[in-house]
Specification:
Layout (H helix, E strand, L loop, with lengths): L7 E5 L3 H11 L2 E5 L3 E4 L3 H11 L2 E4 L2 H8 L2 H6 L2 E4 L2 H11 L12 H10 L4 E7 L13 E11 L4 E5 L2 E5 L7
């Protein structure tokens, strides 16, 4: 007796809608496990604009932050100079906002970006970053660093398993907020 092969897929995404679309596309059994997503930090624009009035130098520490800032041109316009932590972050800024940032020459890290800014004569820098990254990589900087959380982790909800049209709920661990 021959059986039709059954494929199973494990979908790791914060979006249940994307998992459902992948299930429709892939068929078989699809298991969705929600993973960390991100949401805008409350009041981030006002905080960042306020910080940039005191220090008009902006450092962007991730492509996700660059995407968020590209959708807020008033914030990018408030900065006299923009630094990016690495080439992916720079590419997002250029493609989405038309901003060509300064890249560190000594490696792609927050500390390298700070050294680059200090070497260029900057006295201070405002870092736009994830709430989870606050305080990381700024130790020993020779310039004043102001950090503003512009986004924060958010965790998915329930898990589920789809099997050829049926839906059943799986038990899964949820991250504590």
């Amino acid at each position: 007796m021959s059986r039709e092969p059954v494929c199973s897929y494990l979908v790791l995404t914060p979006s249940e809608d994307l998992a459902i679309e992948l299930h429709k596309l892939l068929g078989g059994s699809t298991f969705w496990i929600p993973v960390m997503g991100f949401r805008e930090a409350e009041g981030w624009r006002e905080s960042l604009l306020s910080a940039l009035r005191r220090c008009p130098v902006l450092g962007i520490t991730s492509p996700r932050g660059a995407e968020l800032l590209a959708r807020s041109p008033e914030v990018l316009e408030a900065a006299e100079r923009v630094y990016a932590v690495g080439p992916q972050t720079a590419r997002v800024l250029l493609e989405m906002a038309g901003v060509k940032p300064i890249l560190p020459r000594g490696g792609y890290s927050v500390s390298s970006m700070l050294r680059e800014a200090e070497g260029a004569g900057e006295k201070c820098i405002v870092l736009a970053r994830s709430r989870a990254g606050l305080g990381r990589g700024v130790e020993g900087a020779g310039l004043r660093v102001v950090e503003v959380a512009i986004y924060e982790p958010s965790y998915g909800g329930r898990c589920w398993r789809r099997r050829r049209g049926s839906r059943s709920t799986l038990r899964c661990l949820r991250a504590v907020r």
